Amino acid sequence: MPTFSKLIAAVAFAAVALFSAQAFMAAHPDGVQYGQFLPFSTLIGLLCGWRIMGRATGQGYGAALGSGVKTSAMIVVWALIVFSIVLMVRKAFRKRYDGPMEAVVDIFALALEQVQLMLNAPFLLTLLIGGLLGGLISEWARRRWE
Known about the structure:
This protein has helices at 4-26, 37-56, 61-93, 100-118, 121-145. By secondary structure, it is mostly helical.
């Protein structure tokens, strides 16, 4: 059921994902091609905000803080899954694997490489502060309009 608080949560966490993706890109060396990284990251944030944070509103501001951080963490998990699979498919089309199992196992290695790049203060602070603010804004919208 669409509600205004779900819409606010979706928009808030789309912004969190966008700013986090920009912080992630800033940690990489210059010259890296990102393609559709920002739009897909924003879409993942939008979906997580709607599905995860949007459902968690209405339980108070304390719970909203925790749900906001959880939503930020789920954005990272889904982004890792999606982008690791995309990287694997690109490598597969270049015939870098000897078989399908090697490609599937490489998804986890690619995700681990990305996690190591995520371990920087600007990225983590953007996720944490954005998650807290997104949770509070979503809860406020729930109380204000429903």
